[in-house]
């Protein structure tokens, strides 16, 4: 059982990395705080001995940094988990929410809701519906073109086509939007940012939707292994393929669209994090899914450190693309034999 | 051979799948899968109709026929992977077409051709997936499931592959792993789709020998599609030879493997030769080049 020991080791390593990155992230930003100040502030809060300077630090930590880190971690975990799930059920290691077009679909839904001045609940619902619609369009189109077979390349092409189509609609709405009220809000979705959402109530909403999406996936994650062998084999092994895949698609799409509706389109995370975790601890979904969640959270918090720590506030997608594209090329070189 | 088949009573279906490590199933414990008046095909196009055959535990049934006559269609229709156009499939008297996937999978397992998986699973995890019909919907395999995995790997003599990566194995090894996965399902029937294709000569014979052993010693009902009529002779089981034009021959090797039938099926000149081999089989099929 060599493999099990390795899986456990990777889990522990990822958790340690996540906490180390969170600690690092607490200190980084426009108002820099060395680690010892962070610890001191936490300690003084617990013992209730904050001085004036300490109170500023505490406000910074608890009202600005911590909510933002929690948001980044949740979004990273959600995107990595949904990417891992899409890859499994489509038995295609090269798909991800952004490559399938789900992210752009969800962002079109969100932009439509803003354009017509609907409330924030409608933004969520429309983002989810459009995300789901995209999955169905992409899978139906690639099945139709590939005459029933699941061709990896055709599916990616269909995703690219849907992505561009939806982003064209987003551009159209941006063009038509009111420059004073709607445009800033829409622009924010297109770029992807953690800068705005930090109120406790919105974090609670995100957390609840995150749980609704992730709990069913965690419960049936081992079955994704069976689906990864294809519909016929999964059926013959006794899996109710339609039901299982339906649950997984709905949950993964919910996770993607809730992330998009909170902080816009953040590319690459759903593609590269599951891959990195697979390289470390193998493709068994029993460990892959939890590890991808932890890894995704760590990656996203790390990306956020660069997004706000280097100069001014950078859009997240800029950072994930700069980090993700070379990483992905490297992984393509490593794994190309198995994929294409 | 024909007598044994007739003597097998239509047994009550055993609800518990047999322990495959047990010695040969006695005729009393055997189960019969009956295919009656079956029509199969794609959409409205019927490829094969009026098909009747029995699969009995403890015996091998070889499915022979040229490309495109509907071997694979028949195979997949019986497995419920594509809709049956007419007729019935019963297992121990129960309507198999009405069973849900889980019920069916506990009785019938499918061994696909050795393939590339999209992900680099460990062999142990591949075989464990075979337990999916025995594991609760929200659960994962437990220690007893992994014990069955080890036991099956041990039985097939591939225990040393457990910690290897499936995608890095040879074709023959991958075929053995897929057989192990099917056995981990603890089925009564094993459907093997051209298990010898893409394998070298040695591995082909090893797989046929294994199919025969699984039927005769472990009491499974084995159905195997193959392109080599000699496999039927080696298995000492029953055969179905599907002919072009929705016709077929069904019977023992002696009954269906005749010069005329093989010429009818493949359009080539074949001679059935009597041989005196130490393995015990007395005939072999020899194509004659013209």
Compact description:
The complex is a heterodimer of chains A (340) and B (290). Chain A is an all-alpha fold. Chain A is 79% helix and 0% strand.
The first-level CATH class of the largest domain in chain B is given as: Alpha Beta
Element-by-element helix/strand order of chain A:
HHHHHHHHHHHHHH
* Biggest sheet architecture of chain B: 6 strands, mixed
- Contiguous low-pLDDT stretches of chain B (5 residues minimum) are 1-26
> Termini of chain B, distance in Å?
34 Å
Strand arrangement within the widest β-sheet of chain B reads 6-7-8-3-9-10
Can you tell me the residue ranges of chain A where pLDDT is under 50 for at least 5 consecutive residues? none
Helix content of chain A: over 70%
Strand count of chain A: 0
- The percent range for strand residues of chain B is 15-25%
Calculate Rg of chain A over CA atoms: 20 Å
The structural domain count of chain B equals: 2
Could you state the CATH homologous superfamily of the largest domain in chain B? P-loop containing nucleotide triphosphate hydrolases
Q: Can you put this structure into words, describing what you see?
A:
The complex is a heterodimer of chains A (340) and B (290). Chain A is mainly alpha-helical and 340 residues long. Chain A has a single domain, classed as ABC transporter involved in vitamin B12 uptake, BtuC, CATH 1.10.3470.10. Chain A is built from 14 helices and no strands. Chain A has helices at 2-27, 35-47, 52-89, 102-115, 120-145, 152-176, 182-191, 200-219, 224-227, 231-236, 241-263, 269-281, 285-309, 316-339. In chain A, α3 (52-89) crosses α12 and α12 crosses α14 (316-339). The mean pLDDT of chain A is 87. With 290 residues, chain B is an alpha/beta fold. Chain B has two domains: 2-107 and 187-287, P-loop containing nucleotide triphosphate hydrolases (Rossmann fold); 115-185, no CATH class. Helices cover 30% and strands 24% of the residues of chain B. Chain B has helices at 2-7, 71-78, 101-105, 123-129, 143-155, 171-184, 201-216, 229-235, 253-256, 259-266, and strands at 32-42, 45-56, 60-64, 86-91, 94-95, 108-111, 189-192, 221-225, 238-243, 247-252, 270-274, 283-287. Chain B has a six-stranded mixed beta sheet, sandwiched between helices. Chain B is globular and about 55 Å long. Chain A binds chain B through residues 1-3, 88, 91-93, 219-223, 225-226, 228-229, 232-241, 278, 282-284, 286, 338-339, and chain B through 76, 79-81, 100-102, 104-106, 108-110, 112, 116-122, 124-125, 128-130, 132-133, 135, 137-141, 163, 167, 181, 185.
């Amino acid at each position: 059982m060599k493999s099990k020991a390795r899986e456990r080791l990777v889990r522990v390593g990822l958790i340690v990395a996540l906490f180390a990155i969170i600690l690092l992230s607490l200190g980084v930003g426009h108002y820099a705080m060395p680690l010892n100040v962070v610890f001191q502030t936490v300690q003084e809060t617990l013992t209730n001995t904050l001085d004036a300077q300490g109170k500023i630090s505490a406000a910074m930590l608890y009202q600005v940094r911590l909510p933002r880190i929690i948001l980044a971690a949740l979004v990273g975990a959600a995107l990595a988990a949904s990417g891992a799930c899409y890859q499994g059920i489509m038995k295609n290691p090269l798909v991800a929410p952004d490559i399938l077009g789900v992210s752009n679909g969800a962002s079109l839904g969100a932009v439509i809701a803003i354009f017509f001045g609907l409330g924030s609940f409608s933004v969520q619902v429309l983002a989810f519906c459009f995300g789901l619609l995209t999955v169905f369009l992409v899978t139906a189109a690639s099945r139709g073109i590939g005459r029933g077979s699941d061709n990896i390349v055709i599916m990616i092409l269909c995703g690219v086509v849907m992505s561009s189509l939806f982003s064209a609609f987003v551009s159209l709405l941006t063009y038509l939007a009111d420059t004073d009220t709607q445009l800033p809000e829409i622009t924010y979705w297109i770029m992807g940012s953690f800068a705005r959402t930090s109120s406790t109530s919105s974090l609670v909403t995100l957390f609840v939707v995150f749980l609704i999406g992730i709990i069913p996936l965690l419960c049936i994650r081992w079955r994704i292994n069976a689906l990864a062998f294809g519909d016929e084999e999964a059926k013959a092994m006794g899996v109710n393929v339609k039901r299982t895949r339906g649950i997984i698609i709905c949950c993964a799409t919910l996770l993607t669209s809730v992330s998009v509706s909170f902080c816009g389109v953040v590319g690459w995370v759903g593609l590269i994090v599951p891959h990195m975790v697979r390289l470390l601890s193998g493709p068994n979904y029993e460990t892959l899914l939890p590890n991808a969640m932890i890894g995704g959270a760590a990656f996203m918090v790390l990306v956020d450190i660069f997004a706000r720590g280097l100069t001014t506030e950078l859009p997240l997608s800029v950072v994930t693309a700069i980090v993700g594209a070379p990483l992905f090329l490297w992984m393509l070189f490593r794994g190309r034999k198995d994929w294409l | 051979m024909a007598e044994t088949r007739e003597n097998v009573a239509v047994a009550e279906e055993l609800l518990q799948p047999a322990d495959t490590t047990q010695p040969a199933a006695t005729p009393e414990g055997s189960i019969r899968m009956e295919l009656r008046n079956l029509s199969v095909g794609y959409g409205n196009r019927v490829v094969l109709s009026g098909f009747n055959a029995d699969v009995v535990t403890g015996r091998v049934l070889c499915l022979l026929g040229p490309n495109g006559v509907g071997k694979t269609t028949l195979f997949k229709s019986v497995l419920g992977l594509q809709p049956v156009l007419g007729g019935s499939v019963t297992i121990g008297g129960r309507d198999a077409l009405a069973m849900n996937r889980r019920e069916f999978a506990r009785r019938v397992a499918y061994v696909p051709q050795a393939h590339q998986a999209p992900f680099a699973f460990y062999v142990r995890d591949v075989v464990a997936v075979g337990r999916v019909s025995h594991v609760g919907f929200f659960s994962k395999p437990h220690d007893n499931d992994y014990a069955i995995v080890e036991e099956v790997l041990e039985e097939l003599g591939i225990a040393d592959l457990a910690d290897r990566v499936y995608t890095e194995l040879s074709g023959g090894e991958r075929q053995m792993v897929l057989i192990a996965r099917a056995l981990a399902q603890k089925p009564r029937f094993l459907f093997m789709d051209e298990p010898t294709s893409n394998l070298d000569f040695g591995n082909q014979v090893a797989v046929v020998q294994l199919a025969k052993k699984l039927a005769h010693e472990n009491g499974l009902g084995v159905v195997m599609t193959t392109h080599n009529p000699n496999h039927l002779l080696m298995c000492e089981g029953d055969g179905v030879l599907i002919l072009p034009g929705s016709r077929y021959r069904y019977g023992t090797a002696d009954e269906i493997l005749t010069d005329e039938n093989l010429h009818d099926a493949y359009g080539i000149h074949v001679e059935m030769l009597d041989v005196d081999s130490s393995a015990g089989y007395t005939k072999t099929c020899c194509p004659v080049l013209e």
